[in-house]
Amino acid sequence: xxxxxxxxxxxxLADVSLAxxxxxxxxxxxxxxxxxxxxxxxxxxxxxxxxxxxxxxxxKFGLGPATIYxxxxxxxxxxxxxxxxxxxxxxxxxxxxxxPGAAKRREEALAVLLAAATAPEQRFLSGxxxxxxxxxxLEGVMADAIxxxxxxxxxxxxxxxxxxxxxxxVARAALESGAEGLVQF
Length: 185
What we know:
The chain is mainly α. The protein is built from ten helices and no strands.
């Protein structure tokens, strides 16, 4: 019987981000990332890795920094119920809003997402959207973590990242298929 990983709560990712920011130790950062990467369900690996690297896949949201800062006042949820996949779907839907009144509808959609997020999740999401995540999960540390989580040589992961031009697809391939997954790069 196949063991299926449960979807990771966004709170876990936010907590890992805080822990990464709180340490200067490359070894500790790598350890935290390895533990987190191993806990990601297959369908959330690319998003989780990109977000931990401070990258928001999919491009801009059509909301300015002032709007995002203002929405930090949305009261947070009491309990952590959002998964990484839930948040990613809502952000993708927000990004897709077009037409007359789109800015107001995007703002409302973000307010709904933030209302479903706990305070740490809100800080994580707004920091991600604003490009202000300062957690030290740089590509080199992430490459080491991906290599350790997938039991691969770090130089092979770094080479694949260089050729792919992005960390998230390499992480997905390495974690799902090991060395065979990196061949595509």
